[in-house]
Structures are given as structure tokens and as C-alpha cells.
């Protein structure tokens, strides 16, 4: 580089240069615009085939009936058994992940020494990087027998161990997003708390958590949307038999197998149903429902984080 | 303050500042953090135990290896931890780099074995070299025709890639495979190594030495490899993919002079393994009857657990990653460059860009199974590609990781200080020149980290593969991007429906362990790159 003479005209601007710059700009813009195309394509493809599905199966049956069974290309398609299984998974996994995740976030943001943090944070990151098929395997082969061993009468496929695993899977998400929210609470607030004679416990629970509450809630919503969309754990550990929520004995629902919406989609495509049949197309209707729910939850999370955020200078 | 009674008392006015409550809360929080980590860690220990079955080995075997491998490495770790943190870091990299690059060597070997033959690769390299020569010559002849040069830059490589490879492959006489590899892989790597060393040292002679050394050591394989029982082909791959990075690293540590004690660590590990093997062979101790062994990695799947292997899914995963690297990364980085460098902040165009950013954030939260449906509809039903092929799998997972690639690349690009951009503009550079010469090189480590992590995500994705119809079992490794493929997680899912305990606690554990080791190495490499990069700032 150094031996080249510097007699270049720096202010030179040929029309070719300008055109070239424009081409690059539009190429890069096309890359960014591709993401919008992806969203549109998801909605379009799901909606188109979902509409065909509702030609074959009345929407009233889909949204009101409480029985879902698939026999060959046909069957009865009432979505509630799948929705109830998804809800069970979501609620139980939230019960696992929310307290644990928030407590972990408080520890990492308020109590941990630098050295401790430098060990725990990468460890949690690794936890977040484990594929869901591995979690599913752990739930099926190790957790379910362990639950049976301590006397909980769960079946080979059951919603309980699947929910616990989904909960463990989303802990890193809750903890890292909540910790981000807590670390962005300005130190001056903490100092003021200490100045008022507060203990570290009082500062954490009385000042930091309330100040970061919008970020914490948005992390809950994101994590729950992840739980709703989780596929492999529930397919492997919860089984593929749809079962309507049994109101007379709610706890029993946890012990038996169930089929959440994502598992229903996998079942529809891996069964022998021919393309274009109601069974096959039910995948698109379920997919659209799932997409709408998770998309709405993600938007809600953004909204909560932005709307209720405390502004600090 | 005295007038404001609403806020209540000062803290601690009840004279009962409870240490106990604070301590209890702290331990509760720590306990919660550890609960998540320890529960998964314990389960993974069970998996490792099932996969390797260390207790099935003779007690003598275990003791020998404990003495030859475990104690020395533990001692060294303790020494590094307490005395010499710098050397500890060197030790981690010096052990990790050979392992990661061996993994990479395996990937390249699989690629050249099943996906692109050496001759195809060589013809592509020749075509690109000719194209580069033409572009360079054109630039010398017509220095000021910018637009024309741009067209040549785009058109000539494409023309070369379309015309020349077929021409070369139809030649009556082709050199032997090893010579083709020497020309098409070793020579380019040697040139890159020379260029890299020259740039780092700003010294032509060192660059030439590095390039020459690479070439000579690799070429020596033509004669030496059979002596040590390797094919020249494997020798050359080992030299260029494993030995070169390791050599460069060792040399840089020695030159730096700090933390050189860490270089002893991999030697200690390798020596421990060799001593352990020699001693146990001599004394006749049997090793563990591990499920995860060489046969598992090189055999096709089978219905009998003892014969079951993982090779076709391994090849499938490599093919899928290749598709992803080619499709998702350029688009993702391009989008990130646009959003960070070009996008206006205000006006209706700025609002459009805001919309794109919100949309990317939301796409990152869409369930993977939905992407599977998208891939099915878009590529198979609309695009007419075959169901369950590596191409469709790669494209589908590319769409899935695109938001992750974009977001992490954006972070890396926005971390480049503005002063560097302004310096570049001040020198009269255009926006694209600034991006290409200043922003991208500076952000490259961050972008690499994000991309490797995204690849880790991609390699574990299962649900989209189920939806696009990747077959449950593939017995013969796929040999083209349009043949049916199975990836590692897909095969694990297939095995999970076998009820036999030998599958559940043996073959499956081995498959899961393989997947996790690959992932761990990838994530470790990403974290090391990130740490190195962060310190430099």
C-alpha cells in the first residue's frame, strides 16, 4: 500500500461511481426488504391454505367443538383439545420459569460478583443454545421415569414432564431479558435507596424490580410466546393423542398425554394424509392460529416494554 | 421532605434491619440460578454416562487414565487458575483450536467426499482465478470507466463459472486427485496465509516464508503420507485446515512471549492419552464399551442398536449448513449493513425502515414450526423443489435464522465507532467504499460470532425439517443438494420412537452427545472470538 503514489483526484465523481453506489444501496435494501417478504409470505401461504381448510371443515366446528381426531384424510376437527393442551404447557412452564428466571436475574444483576457473573452468564447462554430436540429427549427418557420414581403416577407420555422441560428451556430467556432491564436501572436510584437507609434486599425488591417491571413483563410475554410455539419437547414427551381438558379432575390432565397445537401440526404432516385433504390442511389452520397468537404476543411485549418504560436521563 | 408524608417512613425505622431476610433472599436467588443450571447439567451427565458408559471399562483402565490424563490436566488447570491466568487462556485456546479445526477438517472432508468432488472444486477455483485475472487486467487497461468496470466485475465471474468448469471437466487428461487438491485447496490457502502474515507483520519475507512452508509441508504429504498410514488427500486437508491455524496461533503466542506456559496443556493432554493407550494395551485392560465410538460416527442407521450409526445425518447436517452459509449469511449481513449504514432516520422512508426493524424483531419470535410450513408452501409447493431435500431444508432454516443473523450483525456494525466512518468520508471515500474498507473489516469478528451462534441454532432445528418432509431414515449419505437428506436432530427424533432400552439409553444418548459436542465447540469458538475482539477495544 505504502509505495503507491497518492496522486488520486479525491473530488473526482464520475457518473459511473454514482450509479454503482446506487446499485449497492438498492441491493442492500433488497436484503432488508426480504424480511418483510417473509412475513407477507407466511401470512399469505398460511391464510390461503387455511381458507381451503375451512371450505372442507366448517369454522364453527373448528372453533367450538371439543373433539379432535384424525382418521386418514378426515376426522373431527374441534381445536379446543389442542388449545387446552397448549395452555396447560404454557401455564405450567410459566410457573417453573417465571419465578426462577426473575430470581436468577436479580442475583445476576444485584448480587453476583464479576467473577461469578462471568461463569453464570455463559452457562445460561449455553443452556439457551441446547437444541429443543435434546430437551425433548431429556424429558422423555430421564425426567418422566424420574417423576415416576418419586411416586407421581405419570404416563410414558405426559404433559407434566413436557411442561417442566419447556419451563427449564425458557428460564435463560426470562433471566437474560429481565437482567438487561434491571441493569439498565440507573445506579443513582440504588444510591438514593441506600441513602435512605435501605438494605440491599429492600433496594432489590423495592426499587430495582419496580423500576424494571416493564422489561420484566415483556420478557415474560416473549418467553411465553416461545413456550406456546415450542414443538419438539411436546412432540417427544407429551405424545400425540389429543385429549380435551378434564374439568372434573384438573390435575389428572397433567399426568396423561396430550397434543398441543404444534404437535398437531407435526402429526398432520407426518401422518399418511394426502396433500389437499382436511387432515393435511389442518396444519395450515393450526399454523395460522399459532402465528397470530405469537405475533400478537411479540407485539404486546414490544408495546409493554416501550409504553411502561420509566425514562431515565 | 418533612412535608411529604405520603412516602411513608425511612427504611429501617422499625429498628429491625434483618440480616437474615437479606441473606435468605440472596441465597434464594442464587439457588434459583443454580437450580436451572444444575438440573440440566445433571441430566446431561446422565446422557454422557449412557453414551460413553465409562463404568463398563476395567478398573485398571480407569485408574491408568486417571493417572496419565486426569491428574496432570487437573494439576495444570489448578496451576493456571491460581498462578497464571494468561497462560490458562492460552491453554484453553491451544486445546480448543486443534479440536475445532479437526472438526472443520471433518466437515471439509465430508464436503469433498460427498458434495463437491475435488475435480469440480478445482475447476471452480481455476474459473475464479481466470475471472480474477480478467477483472484485474481490465482495471489496469481502463482505469477510469467505473460503471464498465462494475459490469465486468459482475459479468466475468458469472460467465467464467458457467463456461470454464464444464470445459475443464471434459478434458481428456486430469491430474490425480491429490495433485488437483494440491492445486485447488493448498495453493489458495498458502496464498491466503502468506497474505495474512504479510499484512500482520508488514514484512514481505515473513509472508513468503509462511506461504512456502504451508505449501512444502502439504506437498510433502504426496510422499510422506503413506508412510504414516494416511492418504495424501487426508494429509493435505489436515495440514491446511488443522495445522495451519494451530501453527499460526502457536507462533503468535511464542512471539508475544506472555502465557507461553499454556502451550504445554495440549501436549499434556495428548501425551496423557498416548501413555494411557500404550499402558492399557500392554497390560490388557479393556476400555469402556462406549456407544459413541468411531463406528457410530461412520455407519449408517440401523434397526439393531449395536450397528446403528450416525454418518448420513452428519453429512446431511454439513450440507444443510453449506446451504445456510451461502444463502442466509450474505443476505443477513447485507440487510444489517443497509439498516445501520444506509437507512434514513426520518421521513416516510424512515418510518418504512422502522417498520422493517420491528418486523425483524417479530420474525425472531415466530415459532420454528411455522417456518417449516412456510418452507413447505414456498419452496416445495410453489417452487417445485423436491420435498425433504438438503436444498429445501437449508433454505427453510435460512429463513428461520435470518432475523438472528441480522440482529447480531447490526449490533456488531453499530459497535464500530463513528469516528472511523468520518475519517473514511473525510478521505473522499464513498459510502460503499467506507462500508467495504472500514466498517465491515472492523465489525467482522462480531459478525462472525453472531453467525456462528446462528449456525449453532440452525444445526439443532428439528421441527422445520419434519414439516418439509425430511425422511425418518436415510441409509446412504446424500450426494447432491437435491437428494433426500436427514440431519442429526431429525435422526435423533426418529430414534426417540424406538422403545428398546438399548436405543433409548444407548444409541440416542450417543446421537445427542455428538450433537451437543458439535454445538459446544461451535459456541466455544464464537465465545473465544468475541472475547478476543472485546479486549482489543
What does this structure look like?
The complex is a heterodimer of chains A (313) and B (537). Chain A has 313 residues and is mainly α. Chain A has one domain: MetI-like fold (Orthogonal Bundle). Helix content of chain A is 73%, strand content 3%. Chain A has a two-stranded antiparallel ribbon. Chain B has helices at 19-52, 59-82, 85-115, 118-141, 146-169, 177-201, 204-228, 232-256, 264-283, 294-298, 311-342, 347-363, 368-382, 390-414, 418-426, 431-460, 463-467, 488-496, 501-536. Chain B has 2 domains: 66-288, no CATH class; 311-536, MetI-like fold (Orthogonal Bundle). The longest helix of chain B has 36 residues, at 501-536. Chain B is globular, with a radius of gyration of 27 Å. Helices cover 77% and strands 0% of the residues of chain B. The chains are: A mainly alpha (313), B mainly alpha (537). Chains A and B meet through helix 1, helix 3, helix 4, helix 5 and helix 6 of A and helix 1, helix 5, helix 11, helix 12 and helix 13 of B.
Class from helix and strand fractions of chain A: mainly alpha
Percentage of residues in strands of chain A = under 5%
Number of helices of chain B: 19
Determine the structural class of chain B based on helices, strands and strand pairing. mainly alpha
Low-pLDDT windows of residues of chain B? 1-6
Shape of chain A: globular
CATH class placement of chain A: Mainly Alpha
Within CATH, the superfamily of the largest domain in chain B carries the name MetI-like
> What is the CATH topology descriptor of chain A?
MetI-like fold
On the 0 to 100 scale, the average pLDDT of chain B is 85
Q: Give the CATH level 1 class of the largest domain in chain B.
A: Mainly Alpha
Radius of gyration of chain B: 27 Å
In the CATH hierarchy, the architecture of chain A is: Orthogonal Bundle
Which band does the percent of strand residues of chain B land in?
under 5%
Oligomer: heterodimer
Order of helices and strands of chain B: HHHHHHHHHHHHHHHHHHH
Number of helices of chain A: 13
Strands of the widest sheet of chain A, in order across it, are 1-2
Runs of chain A in which pLDDT lies below 50 for 5 or more consecutive residues are 1-5
Report the CATH topology name of the largest domain in chain B.
Answer: MetI-like fold
> In angstroms, what separates the terminal alpha carbons of chain B?
45 Å
Amino acid at each position: 500500500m505504502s509505495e503507491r503514489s497518492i496522486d488520486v483526484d479525491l473530488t473526482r465523481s464520475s457518473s459511473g461511481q454514482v450509479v454503482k453506489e446506487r446499485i449497492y444501496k438498492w441491493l442492500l435494501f433488497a436484503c432488508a426488504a426480504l424480511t418483510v417478504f417473509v412475513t407477507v409470505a407466511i401470512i399469505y401461504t398460511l391464510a390461503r391454505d387455511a381458507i381451503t381448510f375451512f371450505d372442507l371443515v366448517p369454522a364453527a366446528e373448528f372453533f367450538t367443538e371439543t373433539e379432535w381426531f384424525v382418521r386418514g384424510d378426515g376426522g373431527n376437527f374441534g381445536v379446543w383439545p389442542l388449545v387446552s393442551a397448549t395452555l396447560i404447557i404454557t401455564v405450567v412452564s410459566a410457573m417453573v420459569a417465571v419465578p426462577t428466571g426473575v430470581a436468577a436475574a436479580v442475583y445476576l444483576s444485584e448480587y453476583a460478583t464479576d467473577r461469578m457473573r462471568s461463569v453464570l452468564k455463559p452457562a445460561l447462554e449455553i443452556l439457551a443454545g441446547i437444541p429443543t430436540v435434546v430437551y425433548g429427549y431429556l424429558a422423555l427418557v430421564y425426567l418422566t421415569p424420574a417423576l415416576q420414581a418419586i411416586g407421581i403416577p405419570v404416563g410414558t407420555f405426559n404433559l407434566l414432564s413436557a411442561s417442566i422441560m419447556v419451563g427449564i428451556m425458557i428460564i435463560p430467556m426470562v433471566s437474560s431479558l429481565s437482567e438487561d432491564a434491571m441493569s439498565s436501572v440507573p445506579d443513582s436510584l440504588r444510591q438514593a435507596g441506600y441513602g435512605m437507609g435501605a438494605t440491599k434486599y429492600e433496594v432489590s425488591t423495592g426499587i430495582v424490580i419496580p423500576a424494571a417491571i416493564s422489561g420484566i413483563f415483556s420478557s415474560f410475554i416473549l418467553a411465553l410466546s416461545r413456550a406456546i410455539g415450542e414443538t419438539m419437547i411436546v412432540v417427544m414427551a407429551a405424545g400425540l393423542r389429543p385429549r380435551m381438558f378434564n374439568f372434573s379432575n384438573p390435575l389428572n390432565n397433567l399426568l396423561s398425554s396430550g397434543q398441543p397445537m404444534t404437535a398437531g401440526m407435526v402429526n398432520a404432516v407426518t401422518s399418511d394424509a394426502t396433500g389437499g385433504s382436511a387432515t393435511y390442511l389442518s396444519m395450515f389452520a393450526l399454523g395460522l392460529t399459532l402465528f397470530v397468537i405469537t405475533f400478537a404476543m411479540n407485539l404486546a411485549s414490544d408495546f409493554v416494554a416501550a409504553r411502561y418504560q420509566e425514562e431515565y436521563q | 421532605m418533612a412535608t411529604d408524608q405520603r412516602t411513608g417512613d425511612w427504611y429501617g425505622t422499625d429498628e429491625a434491619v434483618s440480616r437474615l431476610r437479606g441473606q435468605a433472599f440472596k441465597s434464594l436467588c442464587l439457588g434459583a440460578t443454580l437450580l436451572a443450571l444444575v438440573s440440566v447439567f445433571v441430566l446431561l451427565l446422565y446422557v454422557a454416562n449412557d453414551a460413553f458408559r465409562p463404568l463398563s471399562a476395567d478398573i485398571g483402565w480407569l485408574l491408568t487414565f486417571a493417572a496419565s490424563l486426569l491428574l496432570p490436566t487437573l494439576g495444570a488447570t489448578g496451576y493456571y487458575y491460581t498462578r497464571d491466568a494468561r497462560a490458562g487462556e492460552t491453554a484453553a485456546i491451544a486445546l480448543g483450536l486443534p479440536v475445532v479445526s479437526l472438526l472443520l477438517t471433518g466437515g471439509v472432508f465430508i464436503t469433498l467426499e460427498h458434495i463437491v468432488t475435488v475435480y469440480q472444486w478445482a475447476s471452480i477455483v481455476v474459473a475464479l482465478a481466470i475471472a480474477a485475472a480478467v477483472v484485474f487486467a481490465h482495471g489496469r487497461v481502463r482505469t477510469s470507466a467505473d460503471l464498465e468496470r462494475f459490469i465486468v466485475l459482475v459479468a466475468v465471474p458469472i460467465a467464467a463459472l458457467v463456461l470454464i468448469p464444464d470445459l475443464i471437466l471434459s478434458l481428456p487428461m486430469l491430474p490425480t486427485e491429490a495433485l488437483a487438491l494440491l492445486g485447488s485447496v493448498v495453493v489458495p490457502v498458502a496464498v491466503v496465509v502468506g497474505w495474512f502474515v504479510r499484512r500482520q507483520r508488514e514484512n514481505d519475507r515473513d509472508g513468503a516464508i509462511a506461504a512456502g512452508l504451508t505449501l512444502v509441508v502439504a506437498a510433502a504429504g504426496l510422499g510422506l503420507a503413506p508412510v504414516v498410514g494416511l492418504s495424501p488427500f487426508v494429509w493435505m486437508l489436515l495440514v491446511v485446515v488443522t495445522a495451519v491455524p494451530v501453527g499460526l496461533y502457536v507462533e503468535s503466542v511464542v512471539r508475544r512471549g506472555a502465557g507461553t506456559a499454556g502451550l504445554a496443556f495440549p501436549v499434556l493432554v495428548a501425551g496423557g492419552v498416548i501413555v494411557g493407550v500404550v499402558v492399557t494395551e500392554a497390560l490388557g485392560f479393556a476400555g469402556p464399551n462406549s456407544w459413541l465410538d468411531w463406528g457410530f460416527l461412520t455407519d449408517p442407521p440401523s434397526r439393531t442398536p449395536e450397528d446403528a450409526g450416525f454418518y448420513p445425518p452428519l453429512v446431511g447436517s454439513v450440507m444443510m449448513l453449506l446451504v445456510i452459509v451461502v444463502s442466509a449469511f450474505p443476505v443477513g449481513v447485507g440487510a444489517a449493513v443497509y439498516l445501520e449504514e444506509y437507512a434514513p432516520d426520518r421521513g416516510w422512508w424512515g418510518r418504512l425502515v422502522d417498520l422493517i426493524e420491528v418486523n425483524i424483531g417479530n420474525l425472531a419470535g415466530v415459532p420454528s414450526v411455522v417456518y417449516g410450513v412456510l418452507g413447505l408452501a414456498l419452496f416445495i409447493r410453489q417452487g417445485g423443489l423436491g420435498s425433504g431435500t438438503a436444498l429445501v431444508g437449508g433454505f427453510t432454516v435460512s429463513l428461520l435464522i435470518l432475523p438472528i443473523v441480522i440482529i447480531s450483525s447490526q449490533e456488531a456494525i453499530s459497535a464500530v465507532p463513528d469516528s472511523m466512518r468520518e475519517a473514511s468520508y473525510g478521505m473522499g471515500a464513498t459510502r460503499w467504499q467506507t462500508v467495504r474498507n472500514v466498517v465491515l473489516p472492523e465489525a467482522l469478528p462480531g459478525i462472525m460470532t453472531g453467525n456462528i451462534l446462528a449456525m449453532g441454532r440452525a444445526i439443532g432445528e428439528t421441527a422445520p425439517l419434519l414439516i418439509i418432509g425430511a425422511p425418518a431414515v436415510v441409509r446412504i449419505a446424500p450426494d447432491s443438494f437435491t437428494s433426500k437428506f436427514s440431519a442429526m436432530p431429525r435422526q435423533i427424533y426418529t430414534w426417540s420412537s424406538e422403545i428398546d432400552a438399548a436405543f433409548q439409553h444407548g444409541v440416542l444418548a450417543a446421537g445427542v452427545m455428538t450433537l451437543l459436542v458439535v454445538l459446544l465447540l461451535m459456541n466455544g469458538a464464537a465465545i473465544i472470538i468475541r472475547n478476543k475482539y472485546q479486549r482489543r477495544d
